[in-house]
Design goal:
There is one protein chain. By secondary structure, the chain is an alpha/beta fold. The protein contains 13 helices and 14 strands. The chain has helices at residues 53-71, 87-95, 100-117, 133-146, 178-187, 227-239, 253-268, 300-305, 310-318, 330-347, 356-367, 372-387, 396-408, and strands spanning 20-23, 28-31, 37-42, 75-82, 125-128, 149-151, 160-162, 203-208, 223-225, 243-249, 274-280, 283-285, 288-289, 326-328. It has a five-stranded parallel sheet, with helices on both faces. A hairpin with a 2-residue loop joins β12 and β13 (288-289). The longest helix has 19 residues, at 53-71. The protein binds 5'-O-(N-(L-cysteinyl)-sulfamoyl)adenosine and zinc ion. 5'-O-(N-(L-cysteinyl)-sulfamoyl)adenosine binds next to α1 and β10.
């Protein structure tokens, strides 16, 4: 698929700091150690509805990872999928009497516009599951022949399942307890009750065609893929094993990232799939989880339609730690709008205090597991001083503008 368009990222004066990130698998903050080309996979949208602020917050967190690696002199190979065939998409298309392909295309186009407006740097590879179908089919065949997968003994629907513990490492990414595994598997797209499975946690790899559902021909028989394998294959075939960061929201830690890692490790016999598994917290609205069923979604596109400056949305979302579960509130947007105005006013001044210490603090805070709250305060401190007439440095306003643009993605 065509990704959205990129924006230039200026060079920031001073010295970058290596990025440290919390890794779910290790259960601690560890430094990222990319080679000359840093490699990141972030799980993309399931395009059956517009991008809400929860999605946006998650993509912003990984946009900062991208920007900090660029600041550290790495090139970044960024891959993102689009789950353009899956149950939720078909259910929504069915409910609305719409063609599922058209629905997916429309919502993907809107997502691109939203990401563009928020100045999220695009992936180089933006890959739909449908586009990756031959790769996925090949992988199911390999998992079947290695014994990591099996076919159900069901003449009508001989679905293919992954033996959940085929690598002997199951649980090492999420560290979920058996009770959590059962609960999350059932809540997040799994089918523990499917008759004929060897184990309730075995994950669907290939769903044999059902009447009225789209399907693809293959040596496995006509069908469509399971969700987790899509991300294993799209990542593996572009980034190889042992890439730097696998990202997404915390709702993906189990089962999705557990299985996408397991599938890839079973396919290659290598470990690990990713060196860091990073998860952003869930964003709710006024204290409730933002979800389609509660009807309490705030869409990025709606805010754009209301002529809210996307840079204010960006600042509002960054004013909380990416790993915390948090709420979107009208006050957060008001504060983001006010902060944007002050920052713009300050960088328009002829002089200000020297930018070096503020930029160093900004870098240090971001490099510390993306501590955006403190990073924003580092800029606030410079802005407050500049607005009270402190400082004679004529290059400082421009340098702050550059650093805020490159590191926070906010154009002043
Ligand atoms: N297509 C799959 C991933 S392969 C998927 O989860 N799609 S999604 O559209 O449901 O979510 C896209 C991304 O937004 C995922 O990383 C998900 O974890 C994240 N996300 C979803 N809801 C929220 C929320 N309320 N707050 C923060 N992030 C969220
Ligand atoms: Zn995914």
């Amino acid at each position: 698929m065509q990704p959205w368009s990129s924006v230039p990222v200026p060079q920031v004066p001073g010295t970058p700091h290596p990025l440290r990130l919390y890794d779910t698998a290790a259960g601690e903050i560890r430094v990222t150690t990319p080679g000359p080309v840093a490699r990141m996979y972030v799980c993309g949208i399931t395009p059956y509805d517009a991008t809400h602020l929860g999605h946006a917050a998650t993509y912003l967190a990984f946009d900062l990872v991208h920007r900090l690696w660029l600041d550290n002199g790495h090139e970044v190979h960024y891959v993102q999928n689009v789950t353009d065939i899956d149950d939720p998409l078909l259910e929504r298309a069915d409910r609305d009497g719409e063609d599922w392909v058209v629905l997916a295309m429309r919502e993907t186009a809107l997502f691109r516009e939203d990401m563009n407006a928020l100045r999220v740097l695009p992936p180089q590879d933006f890959i739909g599951a449908v586009e990756a179908m031959p790769e996925i089919i090949e992988a199911v065949g390999k998992l079947l022949s290695s014994g990591a997968a099996y076919r159900l003994d069901d003449d009508e629907y001989p679905d293919v399942y992954y033996r959940h513990d085929a690598t002997g490492r199951f649980g090492s990414e999420s560290h979920c307890t058996p009770e959590e595994m059962d609960r999350f598997f059932a809540e997040r797209g799994g089918d523990p009750e499917r008759p004929g499975k060897e184990h309730p946690l075995d994950a669907l790899l290939w769903r044999a065609a059902r009447p009225g559902e789209p399907s693809w021909d293959s040596e496995l028989g006509p069908g469509r893929p399971g969700w987790h394998l899509e991300c294993s294959v799209i990542a593996l075939n572009r980034l190889r094993m042992n890439f730097d960061v696998q990202g997404g929201g915390s709702d993906l830690a189990f089962p999705h990232h557990e299985f996408s890692a397991a599938h890839a490790e079973a396919l290659t016999g290598e470990h690990p799939f990713a060196r860091h598994y990073c998860h952003a917290g869930m964003v709710g609205l006024d204290g409730e989880k933002m979800s389609k069923s509660k009807g309490n979604l705030v869409f990025v596109s709606r805010l754009r339609g209301d002529r809210v400056d996307p840079m204010a949305v960006r600042l509002a979302l960054l004013d909380a730690h990416y790993r915390s579960d948090r709420s979107w509130t009208a006050d957060a947007l008001t504060a983001g709008t006010a902060r944007l105005a002050r920052w713009r006013q300050a960088v328009a001044l002829a002089t200000g205090p020297a930018a070096g210490p503020a930029i160093d603090e900004l870098r240090e805070r971001l490099a510390d597991d993306l501590d955006t709250e403190r990073a924003l305060r580092a800029v606030d401190a410079w802005v407050d001083a500049a607005l009270t007439g402190t400082g004679e440095d004529a290059t400082a306003p421009g340098e702050i503008r550059t650093a805020v643009d490159a590191l926070l993605g906010v154009r002043l």
